[in-house]
Amino acid sequence: VQALALLLSKGQPLTLEAAARALSLPPRRLRLMLEAEGQGFRELLNEFRRDAAAQYLRQGLTVTQTAYLLGFSEPAAFQ
What integer is the mean pLDDT of 18-47? Predict the structure, then answer.
């Protein structure tokens, strides 16, 4: 989750490969670590985005601003 927050703050893509790079791990190793915890990258990403979206919206950001900050190409993809 910390790697995703770091990527988001730098405007980098929220991908398994980018998260692995941020953690100095091979992507396969990160995938295996997540699987050992019973979670896939997509589920982790969705949970992270859901929590971050709730926080942004509570702070008064618009849906459009929130979608952009979470790396969605357009607000419709976020909703």
Answer: 93
